[in-house]
Amino acid sequence: YLLLRGSRDFGVPCSDVCFYHMEIETGAFERIVYFPEVQLDKEKPQVNFENGILKIQFDILEDKEAIIKVE
User: Fold this and answer.
1) What is the SS3 assignment for 30-59?
2) R_g (Cα) of the chain, nearest Å
């Protein structure tokens, strides 16, 4: 799984801004994202944070097949 932990702060008062819905107001937060049942390269994620959106991508590793000779 991937654990995301951080805190959110507006930094400046937003008296002239109105939000319809916000999942996280301000303060500390923590989210756990579970991976699917595939082999991922968890050592080399591609991480991008742009316009307030965090994007994390993992490459999918090839399944290694083994041939076992049975006599």
Assistant:
1) EEEECCCCCCECCCCCEEEEECCEEEEECC
2) 20
